[in-house]
């Protein structure tokens, strides 16, 4: 099945959710008669809870990517053809990955309990919160989602987690970016570039890498594919949440690797999958 991809502007609300989402249109919808089309939407699920005194004690605002399928006329796919059924199955696998953030009621109950526990312990109210913001990059072959998850359930500060999901539209499964090519030097090339960029960041703070990052920072960077890896039109980004590579005060660490750096270390299939070539990288 040839996957023709479209990114749409979505304005809407669902039961239990509200919010506007804007995504740049990557491709227009195809002419009538073209096969199933994958459409990514970012939908906001928003809710809050107030205590009997009218104080807001819980805020919930999670932006969740949703993958749907339309036919060549732009109508929701019915699943009548084998191609549509397969596309719908793949979309269901993608969407299931994000179910936890659409379960607003259960999440709100947990946060409300945290708020009650906080007030009992400290004698005053605090706002417990959970937010997720996402950006989406989509090509003919895959979808890459980059997310920032923030939560506060009591304590000195909120928690920040960088997240990513990379989904192969051809196989209908999530994939490890390290497995993009068969060339054995891809892992080493990415590692070397991460070390170079990390050393540059530390130098900007007039510190050695061992002082700015954790002393074993090279071991952490060696395992780069286990962290938040995402793609866009220009390259690959590897992100580390606070505490993963450095102390909380240093904040999240993001390293962007352009495709022209990756290109010599990717095999032909990986280049086709990413949609890059020597001329376009």
Secondary-structure blueprint of this entry?
Elements: E1 4-7, E2 10-11, E3 20-21, E4 37-50, E5 56-70, H1 82-96, H2 99-102, H3 104-122, E6 128-138, E7 142-152, E8 159-168, E9 173-174, H4 186-204, H5 209-212, H6 217-222, E10 228-231, E11 235-240, E12 253-258, H7 259-262, H8 268-274
Parallel strand pairs: 1-4, 5-6
Antiparallel strand pairs: 2-3, 4-5, 6-7, 7-8, 8-9, 10-11, 11-12
Explained architecture:
- There is one protein chain.
- The protein has 281 residues and is an alpha+beta fold.
- Helices cover 28% and strands 31% of the residues.
- A 7-stranded mixed sheet has the order 1-4-5-6-7-8-9, covered by helices on one side. A 3-stranded antiparallel sheet has the order 10-11-12. A two-stranded antiparallel sheet has the order 2-3.
- The longest helix has 19 residues, at 104-122.
- The radius of gyration is 21 Å and the shape is flat.
- The two termini are 27 Å apart.
- Mean pLDDT is 86; it is low at 1-33.
